[in-house]
Design a protein that fits this description.
The complex is a heterodimer of chains A (787) and B (132).
Chain A: H1 2-12, H2 25-36, H3 42-57, H4 64-88, H5 98-128, H6 132-159, H7 169-191, H8 207-243, H9 254-307, H10 311-329, E1 333-338, E2 354-355, E3 357-364, E4 367-375, E5 381-382, H11 385-424, E6 428-432, E7 438-441, H12 443-450, H13 466-476, H14 481-493, E8 499-505, E9 512-520, E10 528-534, H15 536-591, H16 597-625, E11 632-636, H17 637-654, E12 658-662, E13 669-673, H18 674-691, E14 701-709, E15 713-720, H19 748-758, E16 762-767, E17 773-780
Parallel strand pairs in A: 12-14
Antiparallel strand pairs in A: 1-4, 2-5, 3-4, 6-7, 6-10, 8-9, 9-10, 11-13, 14-15, 15-17, 16-17
Helix pairs in contact in A: 1-2, 1-3, 2-4, 2-6, 3-4, 4-5, 5-6, 5-9, 6-8, 6-9, 7-8, 8-9, 9-10, 9-11, 10-11, 13-14, 15-16, 15-17, 15-19, 17-18, 18-19
Chain B: E1 7-11, H1 15-27, E2 31-35, H2 38-44, E3 52-56, H3 64-73, E4 80-84, H4 89-97, E5 102-105, H5 110-127
Parallel strand pairs in B: 1-2, 1-3, 3-4, 4-5
Classes of the chains: A alpha+beta (787), B alpha/beta (132).
């Protein structure tokens, strides 16, 4: 369409009788189109131009072959121009740098018409019979002029339609004034009646000279675009004037006047385009520099803002600066997305170069700690690499600030944690240096010192010499203070990995107990941590527990005694019966004459022995019933086992139980309470007999085995042939009130357990492979590990 | 007491009891043999038949009742007097039903024992034709 209109304009502006016109717009329209259009769609535009070409040129009455040939040359010109400019220029549609302008002039304005005009002139010469060089020259000049004036104007209008839209009213007014003045001056310069060749140059007062200021005005004030349009306007006016026989060139012969006009326009246009481009380039460089300085100033202010900011203020400052950043970059919103410390964070859209938002990673110590997301209101915008570079620099400032905040937060949290832990400890804690001086204490430690009944070992302030205080305590004869002193000294010297000690202080009756613990400080400078923990409650509880355990033991003893009452009675009846019988026999022997004095002596001996035996039984009964404290003595467990079996003798008989003994041949020495350990053995026996209540008479056997178990312990096992334990009951049977017997209290085994554990031993039960269960206990041997 | 002194067997696991009973019965004019267990009695008494047996009920191994039952089963009808440390009604009842002459609880009155033995010896001699 433009091509058609352009061709017609070309016809109008032709200076007959030559075929080429002064101005030939179709080629320039085509050239501009190819510069604007992507390369792959060129063929569409070329095809579209074809009917326009036919429609424009056929009516001229030229032979069809010439019309077709001219289309081919026109197309070739546009193609050469487009290919050249696209190849050499970094922005083919823009003429705002000197380089771009030079490329444009060399390629589109000179080379393309130069080359294509040979073919064109040949076609016209051959098909229309015109003079070859005349055609070539006319076409070349007209096309050069058109390319020079029309293509930049088309490019300006097509690619930068809105360039004056955002301008101020003043600027618009200035532009309007410029346009009006230019048109007026041009009409005056070219439209005036011919005043002869002398008027062309140098003639003072020539209106032509007045054109230059206006063209310069356009170039300087409004850049290449305005210069292009001004040139086009000037050219159109000049050509229009020329074709209508007006203006400075009309005094020349027709062809010469055209060339003169054209040369005039070249001479004006080429420097003007270059000048406009130079000014634009310069202006842009200044703008870029100014922009850069502004950005750097902003960046400096931004970095400076975070440098001395306390970390708790950083978050708020980040918010404020994000807003300022958005204003500075003229974006709608800048958002900072934090990523969690570990694991994948929320997915941040990472938009391409053309999008409404751009996300830049916040990188601190090679880790992405978040994203800075820049939003722009237009749905799509271009994010030039230069801008992204700036955004990255800004992101780095934020990343550094956040990294510092994180590090300081973590440090503070760790310090808070440490001080909270120390403060929350009820134990009094002090840190000593290598020499035993107090270098740090916690609140409990200080509190200890303030208490009236303070311990001799805690509460001293930082700076106090702890070892000296301990030495003083030793001199004053504080009980066990030398043990404390040497313990701490050994830990400080590294000859001991730790030291623990329990001590009491305060007046009797209101005693307080403390556990002292000393552990080395694991640091090159050495030192130790001393802690005092009040354990009075625990101690009281232990005493209480011991008391209840003994009461329980007493209770069980009593109840066991109840169970054994019958056999114990039997145990007494045996000697009593023997005594009675012996006494009666003695009386009879006395009645005889002569009395058998020897026999009487034997009888009295037996009576005394039986009486002793009865007294023993009674004594043992009393021991069992008495609520004794733990009275330790060195004992032979084998003796105890035999004693218990003797005690049980008649009960074993009553229950028809066979007892087997597999005792260690040597003495089985333990350090313990005789009565309590007998109680254990007795309870295990009673338990074994009870377990066999349902077993057939001949199969009731108990085997007691005792042995030395290594150098450190002795082991006793009581094996029965009863029903055994059900699965999972191995632990439960030792709990109080666990019983399987209808009349049982469930105390026997639990008492046995507490007695054995009080002796530092262990008690356990296993099921036998064949039948029944075995109850074991082991006790530390006196030479072995102390219990 | 026309014939030789009657023989009394004492079976008790308690040495003191055995020795005191032996003295008492000897002083009363009996011949006494003592056994520490039922098995010992069964082994040794085969040839020498006592006129009366004083049996302890509770002994390791076979009890006095077991021994008495075995003797009865073997047709050796020896009059038996049981002595026991704990006199419970059921044991006494069982003993008497099994043919015991008497059942005494320790410590017993020696005169009761002696008269029981006398009765048992007489009873035994009555049942058994002399000379056999």
């Amino acid at each position: 369409m433009s091509y058609y209109v352009g061709a017609n304009i070309g016809f109008i502006l032709r200076i007959p009788p030559a075929t080429p016109s002064v101005l030939w717009p179709p080629n320039s329209v085509l050239t501009a189109t190819l510069l604007l259009a992507p390369r792959r769609r060129w063929w569409i535009y070329l095809l579209a131009a074809f009917p326009a070409h036919l429609a424009a040129e056929l009516p001229a009455g030229w032979p069809t072959s010439l019309v077709l040939a001219l289309f081919a040359t026109n197309c070739s010109e546009a193609l050469v121009a487009a290919v050249c400019v696209r190849h050499f220029s970094d922005a083919p549609t823009r003429l705002d740098t000197l380089r771009r302008v030079v490329v444009f002039i060399a390629g589109a304005v000179l080379a393309a018409p130069f080359v294509s005009s040979f073919a064109d002139a040949a076609a016209v010469a051959w098909l229309a019979g015109e003079h070859y060089w005349s055609v070539w020259r006319t076409r070349f000049f007209s096309n050069v002029l058109t390319a020079l004036t029309l293509v930049p104007a088309i490019l300006t209008v097509a690619s930068d339609r809105g360039w004056m839209r955002g301008a101020s009213i003043r600027r618009r007014a200035e532009a309007s004034l410029l346009a009006a003045s230019l048109v007026a001056v041009a009409i005056m310069a070219f439209g005036a009646r011919s005043v002869g060749p002398a008027a062309l140059f140098g003639s003072p007062g020539s209106p032509l000279a007045f054109l230059l200021p206006f063209l310069l005005w356009a170039a300087v004030r409004f850049g290449p675009r305005a210069a292009n349009l001004a040139l086009l306007t000037t050219s159109l006016v000049a050509i229009w004037a020329g074709t209508h026989g007006r203006g400075p060139f009309t005094s020349l012969p027709a062809a010469t006047s055209v060339v003169a006009l054209q040369i005039f326009l070249f001479v004006v246009a080429i420097p003007l385009l270059c000048l406009a481009a130079l000014i634009e380039e310069r202006r842009r460089a200044e703008e870029a520099l100014e922009e850069r300085l502004r950005f750097e100033a902003f960046l400096a202010r931004l970095s400076g803002a975070f440098v001395h900011l306390p970390s708790h203020d950083i978050e708020k400052a980040v918010e404020a600066w994000l807003q300022r950043l958005a204003e500075f970059l003229q974006l709608d919103r800048v958002v900072l997305v934090r990523l969690p410390a570990a694991g994948p964070g929320p997915a941040v859209p990472c938009p391409g170069a053309a999008s409404s938002s751009m996300a830049v990673p916040l990188v601190a110590s090679d880790r992405v700690v978040g994203w800075l997301v820049f939003h722009s209101a237009p749905a799509e915008r271009v994010w030039p690499e230069e801008l992204i570079q700036k955004l990255r620099m800004i992101a780095q400032v934020f990343a550094n600030a956040l990294a510092r905040k994180d590090a300081e937060d973590a440090l503070r949290a760790s310090e808070l944690m440490k001080s909270a832990i120390l403060a929350s400890l009820s134990s009094a804690v002090a840190v000593l240096d290598r020499d035993g001086r107090v270098i740090a204490v916690n609140e409990s430690w200080t509190r200890f010192g303030a208490e009236p009944e303070a311990t001799a070992y805690a509460g001293f302030p930082v700076g106090a010499h702890y070892l000296a205080i301990c030495r003083q305590a030793v001199r004053e004869g504080v009980p066990q203070s030398s043990k404390v002193l040497s313990g701490i000294e050994e830990v400080l010297h590294g000859s001991r990995r730790g030291f623990a000690f329990e001590y009491s202080c305060g007046s009797p009756g209101s005693e307080r107990w403390f556990a002292l613990s000393v552990v080395p400080l694991n640091r090159p400078a050495g030192g130790a941590v001393v802690s005092h923990t009040e354990v009075t409650e625990r101690k009281r509880a232990e005493v209480q527990a011991e008391r209840s355990r003994q009461e329980l033991a007493h209770f069980t003893r009593v109840s066991t005694m109840g169970e054994l009452a019958a056999s114990l009675a039997h145990e007494l009846r045996q000697p009593l019966t023997a005594i009675m019988t012996n006494a009666q026999a003695a009386r009879r022997f006395l009645d005889a004459t002569p009395p058998d004095l020897q026999e009487l002596g034997h009888i009295l001996g037996d009576i005394i022995a039986d009486d002793t035996r009865a007294a023993d039984v009674i004594q043992r009964l009393r021991e069992m019933l008495s609520k004794g404290e733990l009275r330790r003595a060195v004992l032979d467990l084998n003796d105890l086992i035999r004693d218990v079996i003797r005690l049980l003798g008649s009960d074993v008989v009553i229950r028809n139980v066979k007892v087997g003994l597999e005792l260690d041949p040597g003495p089985l020495v333990v350090n313990g309470d005789r009565v309590q350990l007998e109680q254990v053995i007795l309870n295990l026996f009673v338990n074994a007999m009870d377990a066999m209540a349902e077993v057939a008479d001949g199969e009731r056997t108990i085997v007691v085995r005792s042995e030395v178990d290594g150098a450190e312990a002795v082991h006793v096992a009581v094996r029965d042939a009863g029903t055994g334990m059900r699965d999972g009951a191995h632990e439960e049977i030792f709990k109080p009130f666990y019983t399987t017997k209808p009349e049982g209290m469930g105390m026997g085994l639990s008492i046995a357990k507490s007695i054995i554990e009080a002796h530092g031993g262990t008690i356990w039960a296993t099921n036998n492979p064949e039948r029944g269960a075995t109850f074991h206990f082991s006790l530390p041997a006196p030479g072995g590990t102390p219990g | 007491m026309s014939e030789a002194e009657p023989t009394i067997a004492v079976v008790d696991d308690d040495l003191s009891i055995r020795r005191s009973l032996e003295r008492l019965l000897r002083s009363a004019g009996y011949r006494v043999t003592t056994f520490a267990s039922a098995r010992e009695f069964l082994e040794r008494v085969a040839s020498d038949r006592p006129d009366c047996a004083v049996l302890d009920v509770r002994m390791p191994g076979q009890s006095g009742l077991d021994l008495h039952g075995k003797l009865a089963a073997a047709g050796r009808d020896i009059p038996a007097i049981f002595i026991t440390g704990d006199a419970d009604f059921f044991t006494a009842d069982r003993a008497m039903k099994a043919g015991a002459t008497d059942f005494l609880s320790k410590p017993f009155d020696v005169y009761v024992l002696l008269s029981a033995i006398e009765r048992a010896v007489a009873q035994g001699r009555q049942r058994r034709p002399p000379g056999k």
